[in-house]
Amino acid sequence: MAQASPRPTGQADWKTYTTPDGTLMFDYPPDWTVKDRAREAAPGGVFIEVLTGARKSIATLRTNIVTKASCTQKLPYALMDSQELPALAQNGVKPRFVFEGRDDHESYPSRPAPLSYGITSAPLPAGPSACPIFQFFNWPPGVAAFSGVYDPLVTTPGDTPDVDTPESYTGTEEYDSLRQMITSLRPAD
Questions:
Q1: Which CATH class name applies to 15-187?
Q2: Which listed residue, 6, 84, 143, 189, has the most CB atoms within 10 A of its CB?
Q3: pLDDT digits over 166-184, tens only?
């Protein structure tokens, strides 16, 4: 079993959540809450939702997902942040945390580009375009997802909708906390 990563520096008051099946754990800020959505989980899986202190849904964790990825078209790709997560490695594949986006302004010019953060086992795209966002990682017996969606129209407190860009969001306390939470995911002790 992989080594558990240490609790984020300066986060001594953070709480630790262990999934009901006892396989995974992660740390989260003391004013955030974890909501068990077991009734909506895949058979034999876990489904939890993490909410900020302001009750904003920030991420979900699901296990035992059955999915089939297909790449019907590639879109312009943007990577805002990435970090390898060796504690979750399966069969030599190390998943990584990513904050990424796809731009489809040709089809939907009035919509903001889809952006998401989470853990993926897929390799990083090797060029300026990529398949649709597919943030799943290998976790027995199938795949799992610990991710959330960035919505530029839901701003950080005190900002106007035009101020909160993906680049400025990466500098917020909320992003720092959600990134530390997601990257703290590890096998339970």
A1: alpha beta
A2: 143
A3: 777 888 899 999 999 999 9
